[in-house]
C-alpha cells in the first residue's frame, strides 16, 4: 500500500486567498480562512513553484530578519504574492496598484496583525506614496510591459527614490519569444502592435 500525498499547488493557494479576500470585501475576517491560507502558503513554500524561485531566492539574500525588511510590491494586482510572503513572516510588505481596490487588503492586516497603518494603495501609476529610502526590496512581476514609454523613466526613478542604499530590485517581464501571454490569456498578444495592446489588456 502506498499513501497518496497531495502536493499543494499555487492554484490551491489562490482559491484560499480568494475566499479570504471575499470575506474581507464583506467586512468580515474569518480566522480559520487565514489559518488555511497561511498553512497552504507554508506548504507551497516547501516545494516552491518554478515561477517564484528566482524571486524567493532574491528576497532571501536581502532579508536576514524577516520582520525587519521593508518590501514594496510595485504593481501588486490581486496581492496574492504579497500575502504569500506575509504568511511566511515578511510582515512589512506594502503594495501599490492602479486599478484593483485595496481597502479589503488593509482590513485583513488590521484584523490579523493589528496594523492600522495603510499598507496598500491605489495610485495614478506614477508617483509612489512613500518617503525616500523606505524599502530594502522592491519587486514587480509582469508589470513593466504595461508601463507607457513616457513613464518608464519616472517608474525607475521613483523606485530609486524609495529604495534604501544597497537595496535590491527584482523585475520580471514576459520573454518576447514565449508565444502565450498569461495575463490576457491570448496567444501572441505581446507581439501585437503597441497601439492595439490597451484593447487587449483592457
Short description:
The chain is an alpha/beta fold and 202 residues long. Helices cover 40% and strands 16% of the residues.
What do these coordinates show?
It is a single chain. With 202 residues, the chain is α/β, with parallel strands linked by helices. 40% of the residues lie in helices and 16% in strands. The chain is built from seven helices and seven strands. Strands 3-2-1-4-5 form a five-stranded parallel sheet. A two-stranded antiparallel sheet has the order 6-7.
Which key phrases capture this entry?
alpha/beta; five-stranded parallel beta sheet; 7 helices; 40% helix; disordered N terminus
Mean pLDDT equals 86
Low-confidence stretches: 1-5, 198-202
Report strand %: 15-25%
Number of strands: 7
* Largest sheet report: 5 strands, parallel
Termini distance?
52 Å
Strand order of the largest sheet: 3-2-1-4-5
Overall shape: globular
Structural class: alpha/beta
As a percent range, the share of helical residues equals: 25-40%
Number of helices: 7
Write the layout of secondary structure elements.
Layout: H1 10-25, H2 31-46, H3 50-62, E1 71-74, H4 80-87, E2 93-97, H5 103-113, E3 120-122, E4 135-141, H6 152-162, E5 163-172, E6 180-181, E7 186-187, H7 197-201
Parallel strand pairs: 1-2, 1-4, 2-3, 4-5
Antiparallel strand pairs: 6-7
Helix pairs in contact: 1-2
Amino acid at each position: 500500500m502506498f499513501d497518496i500525498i497531495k502536493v499543494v499547488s499555487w492554484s490551491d493557494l489562490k482559491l484560499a486567498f480568494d475566499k479570504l479576500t471575499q470575506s474581507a470585501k464583506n467586512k468580515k475576517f474569518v480566522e480559520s480562512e487565514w489559518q488555511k491560507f497561511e498553512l497552504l502558503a507554508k506548504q507551497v513554500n516547501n516545494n516552491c513553484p518554478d515561477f517564484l524561485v528566482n524571486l524567493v531566492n532574491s528576497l532571501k539574500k536581502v532579508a536576514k530578519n524577516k520582520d525587519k525588511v521593508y518590501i514594496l510590491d510595485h504593481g501588486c494586482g490581486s496581492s496574492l504574492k504579497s500575502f504569500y510572503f506575509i504568511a511566511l513572516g515578511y510582515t512589512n510588505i506594502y503594495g501599490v496598484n492602479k486599478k484593483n481596490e485595496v481597502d479589503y487588503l488593509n482590513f485583513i492586516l488590521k484584523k490579523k496583525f493589528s496594523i492600522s497603518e495603510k499598507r496598500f494603495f491605489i495610485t495614478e501609476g506614477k508617483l509612489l506614496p512613500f518617503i525616500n529610502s523606505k524599502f530594502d526590496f522592491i519587486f514587480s512581476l509582469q508589470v513593466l510591459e504595461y508601463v507607457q514609454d513616457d513613464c518608464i523613466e519616472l517608474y525607475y526613478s521613483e523606485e530609486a527614490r524609495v529604495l534604501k542604499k544597497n537595496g535590491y530590485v527584482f523585475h520580471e517581464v514576459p520573454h518576447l519569444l514565449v508565444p502565450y501571454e498569461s495575463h490576457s490569456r491570448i496567444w501572441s498578444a505581446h507581439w501585437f502592435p503597441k497601439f492595439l495592446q490597451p484593447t487587449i489588456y483592457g
